[in-house]
Amino acid sequence: MVRFGWHPSDQNHRSAARLKLQQILFSQGFGTRRECSALIARGAVSINGVVLTRMNENDAFDTSGLVFSVSGVEWTFRSPAYLILNKPAGYECSHKPTSWPSVYELLPEPLRNRPTKSATNGVQAVGRLDQDTTGLLIFSDDGQFIHRMASPKWHVPKRYVAQCAREVSEQQLAALRAGVVLNDEPQPVRALAAESRGAHEMELTIAEGKYHQVKRMIAAVGNHVESLHRPQIGSLTLPNDLSEGDWRWLSEDELALVAPR
Ligand code: URA
After folding, report:
1. CA 203, 207, 212, 215 torsion: positive or negative?
2. Is the pTM of this model over 0.85?
3. What CATH code is assigned to 8-76?
4. Is 130 a catalytic site residue?
5. pLDDT by residue (tens digit) across 147-178?
C-alpha cells in the first residue's frame, strides 16, 4: 500500500533517531548483531577518527548525517537507502542470476546485507534492466518507494535510447506513439514520446515497465533493437560523472526528481 502523502524526503524524519552503536552497524548491513558486536570489540569501528571499543557498544549516536568507519572504510548512515547505479552491459538484475553476474555484485556488501522487512535482504533494484541494457538503475530498501515506482498508477516515465538494426522511419515512430499491440497484452501500449536521433537511433519514453517492453515495442513496428540505454527515470538523468559500474547515494533533490510529490 502506498501511504497517502508519503514522500522520500520524509527519510529525514525517519533517520534522525539516536541509535546504539551495535544497532547502527546492524541496520547498515555489517552483519548479525553478534558480528557487529565483534567488529566493535576488535576496534574496527571509529567515529570522527576515534576508535570505539566494547565499552561504547551501547552508546547512542545521532544517526542524522552520521559518518563512521568500519575497517578503515568510511560509511554514511542512511535509512532508508536510495541509490543509483550506472549499469553496464553483461549483468543480470537478479539475486539469483542464471547466465551473467548479478548487478548486486556491483554494490558493496553492506548494501546487499541490510536487514529489511521483506523476505529478501538488502537493497532491491527498482524495476529491472535486461542483461544487455545499460544506464540508470535505482536501488532502495524502502518498500513503499519500490511499490510506488512500480505502480502503474504513478506512471513514472522512463526514457530509453535504442540503436536499431534497420533505419528508423517516421511511420515507426508514429506507430509507437499511437500504440502497438504486444503479443500477450490485451491493450495496446503507447510511447509517451518517440523521436529519431539519427538514421538508426531512436529515443523512446514509456510509462510502464513490462518485460522487454522497449525491445518488443520496436519489434512490433518492424525494427530490431541492437543496443539499449536508459538515460532517465522521471526527471532524473544519469549523472555524467557516474562511470559505468559505479553507484552513489541519491540526494533528496534527486529523489524528488524521481518521485515528485
Ligand atoms: N525495455 C526492454 O526491452 N529492456 C530493458 O532492459 C528495459 C526496457
Report:
1. negative
2. yes
3. 3.10.290.10
4. yes
5. 888 887 788 999 999 999 999 999 999 999 99
Residue nearest to atom 7 of ligand 1 (CA): 129
With a 6 A CB cut-off, is 210 part of the ligand 1 pocket? Answer: no
Could you tell me if the CB of 217 is within 6 A of ligand 1?
no
Spatial separation of the C-alpha atoms in residues 77 and 137, rounded to whole Å? 21
- 223 C-beta closer than 6 A to ligand 1: no
Neighbouring CB atoms inside 10 A of 40's CB total 22
Provide long-range contacts, Cβ within 8 A and 24+ apart, for 175-183. Answer: 175/220, 175/221, 176/204, 176/217, 176/218, 176/221, 180/217, 180/220, 180/221, 181/220, 182/210, 182/213, 182/216, 182/217, 182/220, 183/216
Work out the average pLDDT over 8-23. Answer: 68
State the distance from the centre of ligand 1 to the C-alpha of 133, rounded, in angstroms: 7
Q: Does 228 sit in the ligand 1 pocket, CB within 6 Å? A: yes
- State the closest ligand 1 atom to the C-alpha of 132, by its place in the atom list counted from 1: 6
- The superfamily in CATH containing domain 157-233 is Alpha-L RNA-binding motif (3.30.70.1560)
- Burial tier of 108 (Cβ tally within 10 Å: 0-12, 13-18, 19+): exposed
Q: Say what the alpha-carbon torsion angle 39, 45, 50, 51 is, to the nearest 10 degrees.
A: 20
Query: What residue spans define the domains of the chain?
Result: 8-76, 157-233
Please say if the pLDDT value at position 220 is more than 60: yes
Contact 189, 206 (CB under 8 A): yes
CA of 13 to the centre of ligand 1 (A): 35
